[in-house]
Amino acid sequence: MNTNTILIFFTFSLFFSSSFGAVQDFCVADYSGPQGPAGYSCKNPAKVTVDDFVNHDLANKGNTTNIIKAAVTTAFDSQFPGVNGLGLSLARADLAPGGVIPFHTHPGGSEILIVIEGTLCAGFVSSTANTVYFKTLNKGDVMVFPQGLLHFQINSGRGEALFLAGFNSPNPGLQLTDFALFKNNLPTELVAATTFLDVAQIKKLKGVLGGTG
């Protein structure tokens, strides 16, 4: 196949993909339909209402009476049908004094946060050389966390802390490292072998977080 043939093929591919591709203003999530890698199915536009594009959950403070003294309220596509397919979502995090959002990752999106109240110590670890980037953040400060990298937020002030987080995905996903390691039924011996942690400490953490094995 010569260069001219490749260019003609590429041009016509673009033409047909743009001419016959479905163009939609939005794809409000239809929770009764199937969900695939691209998100939820689209609700029939005739059944879409303005309420599909409004979410009130982030107005409410989360319950921080738990082991991490923090609460995260999400407005992802599973709670906010209007963001389905739009490549964005939001979350609210409330941290009591001493509260922490432990090391975690968002495999499906990058995060940007803005501190609304209080003081945070926040940071992430790069995948090259395990370089750590962390900073004390005060009200109005903004920080970004690249997609898939381990990161954390700690309430480093004396009062309560609140931040809002935006994501470049309607469902960025979430995996808390501590819970992934110790809130499961993986045998303690295997956890010890893969983490180099002491067996007694692993059993203690499994007991605290609800793991077995």
Folded structure, characterized:
Its main location: secreted. InterPro entries: Cupin_1, Germin, Germin_Mn-BS, RmlC-like_jellyroll, RmlC_Cupin_sf. Pfam families: Cupin_1. By secondary structure, the protein is an alpha+beta fold. Among the domains are: 35-44 and 68-173, Jelly Rolls (Sandwich); 179-209, no CATH class. The chain is built from four helices and twelve strands. The protein has helices at residues 3-20, 177-182, 188-195, 199-209, and strands at 29-36, 39-42, 70-75, 89-95, 100-105, 111-117, 120-125, 132-137, 142-145, 151-155, 161-167, 175-176. The strands form three sheets. It has a five-stranded antiparallel sheet with strand order 3-4-11-6-9, with no helix packed on it. The longest helix has 18 residues, at 3-20. The protein is globular. Residues 6-21 have low confidence and may be disordered.
CATH class of the domain at 35-44 and 68-173: Mainly Beta
Number of helices: 4
Mean pLDDT: 90
Q: Kindly report the name of the CATH homologous superfamily of the domain at 35-44 and 68-173.
A: Jelly Rolls
- Strand percentage, roughly? 25-35%
Under CATH, the topology of the domain at 35-44 and 68-173 can be stated as Jelly Rolls
**Element-level helix/strand string:** HEEEEEEEEEEEEHHH
Q: Work out the radius of gyration.
A: 22 Å
CATH architectural grouping of the domain at 35-44 and 68-173: Sandwich
How is the main sheet built?
5 strands, antiparallel
